[in-house]
Amino acid sequence: MGYRTEPLEPAAPADLPFLRRCVDLAREALEDGDEPFGSLLVDAGGAVVFEDRNRVKDGDQTRHPELEIARWAAAHLTPEERAGATAYTSGEHCAMCSAAHAWVGLGPIVYATSTAQLTGWLQEWGVAPGPVTPLPVGDVAPGVPTRGPEPELADEVRALHARLHGMHDPA
Predict the structure, then answer these.
(1) Phi, psi (5° rounding) for residue 160?
(2) 92 counts as catalytic
(3) At CB < 8 A and 24+ separation, what contacts does 13-19 make?
């Protein structure tokens, strides 16, 4: 299994407002001392039904917004509603969140930046890898449709991660 270098399907123009909100949530997380990730869940009618941001600063590394989306959806939506909902996120789901997304039967994932992009940035900056292998959604949950990344937001997301890691990143 290797990194996908091309998206399965690019983000659509209609996705952009939702992805921008995810980046805003990521910025809020960073400003609160957390890692910069933000996500939201949009129902089949286009309404945002849940949003969250990373909350790992207190030591629980499972407090990812994508996992919170899966938990919330399992508790509040029918299987049909879950299948019709789309998760939007500032960064492609990690393996843990991809699995949770698939297990609860959520619909597509749309991401602003990919796992391959984030991994490349971290390697470029000399940041040590985390304890879990970074995998694209399709390697963990091959039945979940994905769209992304969104090139228009890449520099903004990269800058947030650069700030997290104390980098001056003019990219």
Answers:
(1) -65, -45
(2) no
(3) 15/88, 15/110, 15/147, 15/150, 16/150, 16/152, 18/42, 18/48, 18/86, 18/88, 18/110, 19/88, 19/90, 19/110, 19/111, 19/112, 19/150, 19/153
Query: 35, 51, 66, 68: which is the annotated catalytic residue?
Result: 66
For the chain, domain boundaries: 13-164
pLDDT digits (tens, 9 = 90+) for 58-76: 999 999 999 999 999 999 9
How much is the pTM? 0.93
What is the architecture, at CATH level 2, of domain 13-164?
3-Layer(aba) Sandwich (3.40)
What's the distance, Cα to Cα, between the start and end of the chain in Å?
A: 29
